[in-house]
Amino acid sequence: MAATAASATTLPDAPFLPFHRASIGPEEVSAVVEVLQSGWLTTGPRVKQFESAFATHVGAAHAIAVSSCTAALHLALAAIGLEEGDEVILPTMTFAATGEAVLYFRARPVLVDCAADSFHLDPNRIEDAITPRTRAILPVHYSGYASGMDAILEIASRRNLKVIEDAAHSFPSQYRGKTIGTIGDITCFSFYATKTLTTGEGGMITTENPDYAGRMRILSLHGISRDAWKRYTSEGSWRYDIESLGYKYNLTDLQAAIGLAQLARSESLRVQRAALAARYTCELSSFDVFVTPVVPDDVQHAWHLYVLQVNEETLQISRDRVIEELKQHGIGTSVHFIPLHLHPLYQNHCGYRRGQFPNAERHFASAISLPLYPGLTSEEQARVIQALHDIARLYRR
Ligand SMILES: Cc1ncc(COP(=O)(O)O)c(C=O)c1O
Asked: What are the φ and ψ backbone dihedral angles of 302, each rounded to 5 degrees?
């Protein structure tokens, strides 16, 4: 007989454990105070310092700080000259931003399924999705490590396509000894509040191509000629030329100050997330009701997400019910992602339909993202693990 939710062990007095808490320390606080006291709050010396430090950190020739990864994706597609009617290949298993950036151009997001055993885009499905209108492949480095970049780069080079990487989840990360941010034509990072390096909101674009870098820099601040941000400084001039139709996508010095402090701690933060992930896997992999993430040997994982999958063949309750049970235990979780083709925009505007990408649908139906952040204490993580053990015991078929 199925157990009821009421029979699960609950800890009513324990405070709610959120899905995420940003790791902000005294370094970030004093860096922000310093900027506040400097009298210069928006794009300025801190942003330039952050761009330079980030470029050095990943080993990229150019880094352009922007207001979000969404903005980064928009500028990257503008830099390659995407036009109305063009097509961009991307995984259906991604966040709104990846497809949205393509739609800004009235171009078509050509969605591709995941591999059977991973949440990443399946490189074997790319070739079939290419048409004469295809301009770029936009892989998403889901959860914290790269898609199969060797295969993607080989197809792109043979079919004369650009590769723009959505690395919103993947700082700091490596693929076959190469740092993410140095592999494709352009890489886009997110510094959103839940990300592995945060500035509250923010993003960074890296590229080896000086023309792309120059274009993206100008477009990021109203299409105004080089160094528009300097116009109020002693080095700058009040004169400016609007060279093209641009956007207001600049990062501020307040945000960059947080980013610089986070960057300095990024390896230590990564190691802490990796240790938490290893503990989840160690404590949860012996239950046949759960599937723990498998990490390829050739990557270094940034561990933005720890995505546990529910095995509905051995568990009596659905993923949604597991999330509810965890909530009753006072534990916050999330789901990454509802595949794009299941959303009204993609069905009504682009003609996608349910059933078209079965691997993504299967992965989506089983996925739960568990709390994973450096401030998660050992006791808090033990609570998550204990709750999952309780669920496994109560609801195993
Ligand atoms: C895969 C992916 N791409 C892009 C974004 C957009 O990032 P931002 O919020 O910095 O615009 C996100 C945000 O969560 C994401 O998960």
From this structure: -80, -15
Per-residue pLDDT at 157? 98
Q: Locate 187 and state its tokens.
A: 């890489």
Are the beta carbons of 232 and 92 closer than 8 angstroms?
Answer: no
Residue 95 has pLDDT above 50, yes or no: yes
Listed residue (108, 267, 134) closest to 197, CA to CA: 267
Could you tell me if 202 and 64 are in contact, meaning their C-beta atoms sit under 8 angstroms apart? no
Residue by residue, DSSP assigns 128-149 as HH--TTEEEE--B-GGGS---H
User: Mean pLDDT across the chain, nearest whole number?
Assistant: 95
CA distance linking residue 204 with residue 96, whole number of Å: 18
**Left (φ > 0), alpha (ψ -120 to 50) or beta: where does 91 sit?**
beta
Reference 381, options 9, 14, 23; nearest CA is 14
Give the C-alpha separation, 35 to 90, whole Å.
Answer: 39
Residues whose beta carbon lies within 6 Å of some atom of ligand 1: 68-70, 94-95, 97-98, 140, 166, 168-169, 190, 192, 203
Close Cβ partners of 226 (under 8 Å, ≥ 6 residues apart): 214, 217, 218
Q: Report the nearest atom of ligand 1 relative to the CA of 94.
A: 1
48 belongs to the catalytic site: no
Centre of ligand 1 from the C-alpha of residue 46, in Å: 23
Taken in order 173, 175, 177, 181, the sign of the CA dihedral is negative
Q: How confident is the model at residue 361 (pLDDT cuts 50, 70, 90)?
A: very high
